[in-house]
Design brief:
The protein has 343 residues and is an alpha+beta fold. Helices cover 22% and strands 22% of the residues. It has one domain: Alpha-Beta Complex (Inorganic Pyrophosphatase), CATH 3.90.80.10. The strands form 4 sheets. Strands 1, 2, 3, 5 and 6 form a 5-stranded antiparallel beta sheet that branches. Strands 4-10-11-13-12 form a 5-stranded mixed barrel. A two-stranded antiparallel ribbon has the order 7-8. The protein is globular and about 60 Å long. The structure holds 2-acetamido-2-deoxy-beta-D-glucopyranose (3 copies). Keywords: Hydrolase, Magnesium, Metal-binding, Signal.
Length: 343
């Protein structure tokens, strides 16, 4: 990382001395944001938690140089825009956990929260032979599943969320973690007639990452896993009474196609934060795209958006209801097998 920063500052220096006029033009064009939040620095990220985990009031904010920013709108999509196979990933759900944790669309700066179902924190049921989330799960920053058009491949509109990704790295990850992953493929999920891509990635720092470039490569090193993960997405909602979730095209889509699909989704996100698309209930306030009306200077964000100044004292998470410790079993017709008196 240091090496890269060094090289790019050298390049900048070269441009500056070769063509001072060009530098002046750039200066006039873009109002310079305060130095403090101008450049995204991965080393300057931290997290602020408010409230107790496993409750509906719990929130987690992303801080950059100690000021709150948006997980969705302010973390860049590409760590290096010249390599679109590697993208940033926001971990919402660490491996082997069950809470449905995600970035909150309508709230300013889109903090992470515990999703709700029937007035209570939502969890996923474990469907045999799967247990909890068997991978790290989260969202791809600066992408949007556009609900205002039918995706050409799926034929369905987007689900209004940032794009989802599951990461098969060996570390379990933690909520709020920002990491760099290599795209290996993706599942075009049809969830309730909405397009809801689940991209498959691996942390660039994982020992396996250098050996795999596609989901087929993963099969060589971890036989059976890509199929098992596909099945997980197909059946996980059956235990709560939903139908199975169809995967368009049945299997994984290839890397070049999903790299293009992520890029397309980035363009939809640009239309969203620039106001070209009606944001509806989505909060598009952000601190990094200074030429857009959704921009707020990072030094003003906390006060103007009423974001707590301090995190809560660390506390034990609230108890997870017992039924989320159990396994649920499906018949050969893929229906939930119900046992009287067991729920
Ligand atoms: C998307 O497809 C559906 C079903 O074919 C159609 O009814 C709808 O008008 C289409 N929406 C758009 C925005 O094209
Ligand atoms: C990748 O997937 C797309 C969509 O399914 C397909 O049109 C394309 O031919 C595939 N490319 C390769 C090299 O398999
Ligand atoms: C605003 O600036 C960003 C770079 O910060 C650029 O990608 C985008 O195209 C610009 N948008 C408009 C509407 O000029």
């Amino acid at each position: 990382m240091f090496g890269k920063t060094f090289v790019s500052s050298l390049a900048l220096l070269a441009i500056t001395s070769a063509n001072p006029l060009e530098v002046r033009i750039t200066k006039e064009k873009a109002p310079k944001p305060e130095k403090k939040c101008a450049e995204f620095d991965y080393e300057k990220l931290s997290l602020r938690e408010i409230g107790q985990r496993n409750t509906l009031d719990w929130r987690m904010y992303l801080l950059h140089r100690d000021e709150p920013i948006s997980f969705w709108h302010d973390v860049p999509l590409y760590p290096d825009p010249s390599n679109k196979n590697i993208i940033n990933f926001v971990v919402e759900i660490p491996r082997w956990t069950d809470g449905k944790i995600e970035t909150r669309r309508p709230e300013a700066l889109n903090p992470i929260f515990h999703d709700e179902k029937d007035g209570a924190p939502r969890y996923v049921e474990s469907v045999w032979p799967h247990k909890s989330y068997p991978f790290l799960y989260g969202s791809i920053p600066q992408t949007w599943e556009n609900p205002n058009l039918n995706h050409t491949f799926t034929g369905f509109p987007g689900d209004k969320d940032p794009m989802d990704l599951f990461d098969i790295s060996r570390d379990d990850g933690y909520t709020g973690q920002i990491k760099q992953v290599k795209l290996l493929g993706g599942l075009a999920v049809n969830d309730g007639d909405e397009t809801d891509w689940k991209m498959l990635g691996i942390d660039v720092k994982d020992p396996l990452a250098a050996l795999v470039n596609t989901y087929e490569d993963v099969e060589k090193y971890r036989p059976g896993t890509v199929q098992a993960f596909r099945d997980w997405f197909t059946y996980y909602k059956v235990a709560r009474g939903d139908d199975i979730i169809p995967i368009i095209g049945e299997t994984y889509q290839n890397v070049s196609f999903v790299v293009d699909t992520v890029e397309e989704s980035h363009k939809y996100w640009q239309d969203l934060v620039s106001g070209k698309e009606d944001p509806g209930k989505i909060s598009i306030v952000q601190t990094s795209q200074i030429n857009l009306s959704s921009w707020i200077p990072c030094k003003d964000a906390r006060k103007k958006l009423n974001i707590p100044k301090k995190g809560s004292k660390p506390q034990e998470p609230a108890e997870k209801p017992e039924k989320y410790h159990w396994w649920y079993y499906l018949s050969s017709e893929k229906k939930l097998i119900e046992v009287p008196g067991s729920s």
